[in-house]
What we know:
By secondary structure, the protein is mostly helical. It has 2 domains: about 10-190, Four Helix Bundle (Hemerythrin (Met), subunit A) (Up-down Bundle); about 200-230, no CATH class. It is built from 10 helices and 2 strands, in the order ααααββαααααα. Strands 1-2 form a two-stranded antiparallel sheet. Helix 2 packs across helix 4, helix 2 crosses helix 5 (about 115-130) and helix 5 (about 115-130) packs across helix 7 (about 145-155). The longest helix is centred in the middle third of the chain and has 24 residues, at about 70-95. It is globular. Mean pLDDT is about 90; it is low at about 200-205.
Amino acid sequence: MQLDQPLSEKEFDELDNFLLSDRSPEDAMTMDMLHGYLTAIAIGPEPIMPAEWLKRVWGQEDTDIPKFKNEKEEERILNLIMRFMNEVLVTFEVAPKEFEPLFVEHEHEGQTLIDAEAWCWGFWEGMELRPGSWDEIWESDVQELMKPIYLLGADEIEEEELPLVEDPIKAHKLAQELEANLPTIYKFWVPRRKPAVTTLVREEPKVGRNDDCPCGSGKKYKKCHGADAAE
C-alpha cells in the first residue's frame, strides 16, 4: 500500500487494536494521543525524521518495544503509522482549515462533549522532541493560540487554572478553541520552519593527490591545484 493512501476505517481499527493490545508496551500511545503527537511534528518549527519520533510512539524508555509476531506484521504496523502521519501532513498542506483533530466524545449530563486531553498530551510530547525551538510562538503576539494545548496537555499548570480543565464543559470549549486555532498555528510556522538537512553531492569525481591534475598541466594534483587547496 502506498504511503499517500489514507487509512480506511478497517485499517484505523487495526492500528488502534494493536496499540491497545498486550503486545504494545504499557505506555504506548493511543490513537488520539498519537494523532496529537504527529500533528505537533507535522506543523512544528523543524522537520523530525521518523527514525527519531517513531520510538516515542511506544513509550519513553528504550525498553518500550512492541512484540511483533514477525517482520511482516512490523512492516504492516509501521506502514499504518506512516500513512496516519501523511494524512496529517497532506491535510495541512492542501486544506489546513479542514483539519480535524482526533478528539474523543463522552456524555455529560445529557450532552455529548469532546475531550481533547489525550490529544494534547500527544501534541505536548511532540513539542518535547524540540522544546527550545517552540519558544518563538510562546513569545509571539499569537501565544494565546497555544493556551488550550498548554492547559490540556502540560504536565503541570497553575492551581488557579485547574477549573478550566476539570469542568467538562469548559474543557469542551477549550477543545473547540484548539481546533479553531490549529490552522493559524500551522501558518505561523510555515515561513519559519527550518529546512530538512540535505546531503551535498559531489558532482565531479574526487581527484587523488597522486593523480594527474585535471587542469591539464601534466603535473600531479598535489604539486599543482592540490597545493593551492592545501594552502
